[in-house]
Structure prediction request, 103 residues.
Amino acid sequence: MKMFGFLCLGALLAAAALPAHASPQVRGDQEAAREGRAQGRLLPLREIESRVVPAMTRKGAQYLGFDFDSGTMIYTLKFLRNGSVIWIDVDGRSGQIVGQSGR
Prediction:
């Protein structure tokens, strides 16, 4: 009986270690970004980051990461400064900042 308990525990731990599948929306956004870059309609993320991240880090912000919305082709870069989150919206086609929220 003790062995059965260990086997069950092992199976649970193994299942918990499996990667979660991305939601259809996330996969769709990733695919849209990949296609947009391949077709030259969308700037690479690294180029977007190279335009925005240095200016924000000079202002004392820490870069946290990004989101991409395939419907609007907008990258949202997230920063943390003085305990507040700042979101910078960047048009993925032009690289222009189109919005900012937070302080």
About this structure: The first helix runs from residue 2 to 17. Residues 4-10, 15-22 have pLDDT under 50 and may be disordered. The helical segments are 2-17, 24-38, 45-58. The domain at 42-103 is CATH 3.10.450 (Nuclear Transport Factor 2; Chain: A,).
